[in-house]
Amino acid sequence: MLPSLFLEPSTPSLQVRPQQSKRKDNEPHLGLFVPAEEAHIGIHDAIFTRVSTTKSASHSSSAFMIDLQRVSFMLRNCTMRSILLIDKFGKGTDPTDGEVLFCGVIQHLISRGSSCPITLVSTHFHEVFTKGFLSLDLPIDYTHMSIFLNNGGESEDDVLPTYLYKLAPDLVSSSHAMGCAAQAGVPRHIRMKAERVSRLLSQYKILELLDIRLDEEEREELRRMEGIVRRFLAVDFEQDGVMESRDWMTFLRENILEKGGDISVNALSSSNDS
């Protein structure tokens, strides 16, 4: 139970937690004795949950479809006096699609304003915060489950988490899945490879993940294509003058596909003047 946690009405509480941090230890206490001197318990009309999904041969739907049906039902039927418990919604499909659905649900609840139900959400989607998909300025109480990291693995590179089972404010940027894998007995060489791949993907260093048997010509072609993509992503298409230009295709071809020069409005203007 979390007697010190006061949930403001219309303010969702979002928890980003490490793997195996035992968030479920608190759930069985709902409705039981409150270990506090006093407690103000409001009147609620319903409790909606997306906590765990059990597959059965009698159901033709996938686990992800069942999750969607549950979340859809709660969003269509909840009121400002309802309680919503959402645990790791968005898993079971492509990570990008899962993140988008997760963000959509959170933004929908916030858009209800004073009619937003009391909502408790836990997730491992750290990128929705680090990449700005969900603004940290939104009216959300961010929390995480505390852990203590110690070097207790097979080598100095292994950092194992010790779970403190205490709620703490603010966000965390990692689920410490490799530490959880170490505790589960996953071989070290597999964990080290997984950690390297995860790090390079987060830094968009795709070339370093490719087979080293590529010849120099193939590697150079990949570098060229990577440069094109990076220059294209750097263009701000909402800048004044970019989309309104008659020659914006010429600008893209000359400054991205061919030479990768200055991708600014000034470069666009000079291209048009010529």
What does this structure look like?
GO terms for molecular function: ATP binding; ATP-dependent DNA damage sensor activity; mismatched DNA binding. InterPro entries: DNA_mismatch_repair_MutS_C, MutS, P-loop_NTPase. Belongs to the DNA mismatch repair MutS family. By secondary structure, the protein is α/β, with parallel strands linked by helices. It has 2 domains: 13-146 and 164-174, P-loop containing nucleotide triphosphate hydrolases (Rossmann fold), CATH 3.40.50.300; 214-273, no CATH class. The chain is 35% helix and 15% strand. It has 8 helices and 6 strands, in the order ββαβαβαββααααα. It has helices spanning 63-77, 95-111, 127-130, 177-183, 188-202, 216-234, 248-258, 265-273; strands at 13-16, 46-50, 82-87, 118-123, 141-150, 160-169. The chain has a 6-stranded mixed sheet, with helices on both faces. Helix 6 packs antiparallel against helix 7 and helix 7 packs across helix 8. The chain is globular and about 70 Å long.
